[in-house]
Write a structure and sequence with these properties.
Length: 220
């Protein structure tokens, strides 16, 4: 009898153990379901991720870029016009007989900030020889209120303005990188176009200015 009763006791132990295991598994499954949302829930709670950060409203100019001889779009810029900060309208043709350097920049542009002191130095060094540096801000409406502070920060001595739409379309026809700097000789002909600014561009820009200054009006 004892052995007979012993068997049922052992069998009930197995049954009880099985029940407990089943209960634990069910409980674990329920907990796991509550802690892991369905794909639909995940779409609501996860932060969207993409291959790249969203584009900013302002272009991010390269710290340095290739600079070369330019081409037709840059050359035609010499026939365009702009508006100075004081509202005065100016055409590039008014600089005939002088060397004109047009610089397209924005206050938020790191390489522009590197170039401006060099332009200030060039204007002081060669102004008496006929050099005229003109900075044209292309940062948009949000950037314009920052221009006066920018002038004070860098002690800009050359005139500033804003390009006409036609001039902007010509300058940025092939690239929207800034700064872009154009050197025109005394006859309004393009000497060199620079896209971006780095240490190499600094010396090349001064060389282009010297070349333009050496050109006589009506000559080669």
């Amino acid at each position: 009898m004892r052995s007979f009763l012993a068997r049922p006791r052992g069998g009930w132990r197995l049954v009880l153990a099985a029940v407990l295991v089943t209960f634990c598994l069910a409980l674990a499954a329920a907990c796991n379901h509550s802690n892991n949302p369905t794909p639909a829930d995940s779409a609501k709670t996860d932060t969207p991720r993409g291959p790249a950060p969203p584009r900013t409203s302002l272009p991010m100019p390269p710290v340095s870029a290739a600079h070369g001889p330019g081409g037709q779009p840059a050359a035609s810029a010499s026939a365009q016009s702009w508006t100075m900060l004081d509202g005065r309208r100016v055409r590039a043709t008014e600089y005939k007989g002088k060397v004109l350097v047009l610089d397209f920049w924005a206050t938020y542009c790191p390489p522009c900030r590197e170039e401006v002191p060099h332009l200030v130095a060039l204007q002081k060094r060669y102004g008496a020889q006929g050099l005229n540096v003109v900075g044209l801000n292309v940062g948009g409406d949000e950037d314009r209120p920052k221009v006066p502070g920018f002038v004070q920060e860098f002690k800009i001595s050359y005139p500033l303005g804003y390009p006409d739409d036609a001039l902007s379309a010509t300058v940025f026809a092939d690239t929207d990188a800034i700064p872009q700097t154009y050197v025109f000789d005394r006859n309004g002909r393009l000497v060199k176009r620079f896209v971006g600014y780095d240490s190499n561009a600094a010396s090349a820009l001064e060389t282009a200015v010297q070349t333009a200054l050496a050109t006589k009006t009506g000559g080669d």
